[in-house]
Amino acid sequence: MKNILILAALSAVILTGCGNISPPFKAEQTTVTTAAPTVSAAASSEAESTVDEEQVKHDTFIAEFFDSNICFVDTSTLVTEAMKGCSFDNETDNSNGVQKITLKGTNGGGTIDVMCVDLSQAQLDHDMEYILENFGDYYFGQTSAQMSGITEDDFVSNYRMTSSVVSKGKYQRYVSVQKSDGMATQFGYTETYAVLSENKLTVASGAFLSSDMMERQSFSQLMSKFAENVKY
After folding, report:
1. Mean pLDDT per 10-residue segment, the chain (232 residues)
2. How far is residue 201 CA from its own chain's centroid?
3. How many whole angstroms separate alpha carbon 56 and alpha carbon 62?
4. Residue 79's pLDDT is what?
């Protein structure tokens, strides 16, 4: 059943406008670590079962989200404002309802996805915090996976926060990356910022990898501009 739900959410092409859509990336994989030898087999099995159940719940929600009656909302104004003064060469593709911005620096590059989804007709049976946390974690996983060759072991910082006030909430997660092979060092940054307000979920999620630490800094400042321009 778990595999069927995942395939249902991730196999189709995104549709613009209203109706059912599918996520823009490949499904993220979760590895379950076995218990240490000193832990009993029963305890180990119970721990794995709990993790597996949580993953099933998460995958079920993502499948329900993309299979619900949702609409894309135009984000061109948000993108235009946030990209003013951008120091990177950039191109924007808005053919699928998601604005995908490709960035190119002197020593690296990356992408930013910007989308706004109207949930007023979705009828999702979840509270705001649950939607923000699960969709935020999902999109962060897809975005960070775009940094080729980078794993969680290369994260030098890791921040995650979800907050809500009355009828609106926001999710933010970001990590900095530093990886060296003894000859060269790569610097990366990935961030997902999401706001749910007035039944609209706005997401800005990007990743950048460069051999120049200053380019990483410029990218993190660019992501801050997107956060500033998302209505909350």
Report:
1. 41 45 43 49 64 85 91 94 96 89 98 96 90 96 94 93 93 96 93 96 98 97 96 86
2. 13
3. 10
4. 97
Q: pTM for this structure?
A: 0.79
113 near 102, Cβ under 8 Å? no
Question: Which residues have a Cβ under 8 Å from the Cβ of 115 and sit 6 or more positions away?
Answer: 72, 75, 97, 98, 99, 202, 203
User: Cα–Cα distance between 79 and 48 in angstroms, integer?
Assistant: 42
Is residue 14 exposed (0-12), middle (13-18) or buried (19+ Cβ within 10 Å)?
middle
Amino acid identity of residue 136, one-letter, is: G
Q: What is the distance between the alpha carbons of residues 26 and 128, in angstroms, rounded to a whole number?
A: 25
Instruction: Tell me how long the chain is.
Output: 232
pLDDT score of 3: 42
- In angstroms, the CA 172 to CA 220 distance is 13
Q: How far apart are CA 90 and CA 183, in angstroms?
A: 29
In 97-138, beta strands by DSSP E = 99-104, 108-118
Give the Cα separation of 151 and 45 in Å (integer): 26
Looking at residue 231, its pLDDT comes to: 85
**C-alpha 47 chain-centroid distance:** 27
Q: What are the two backbone dihedrals, phi and then psi, of residue 60, each rounded to the nearest 5 degrees?
A: -65, -45
R_g (Cα) of the chain, nearest Å: 19
For residue 27, give the amino acid letter.
A
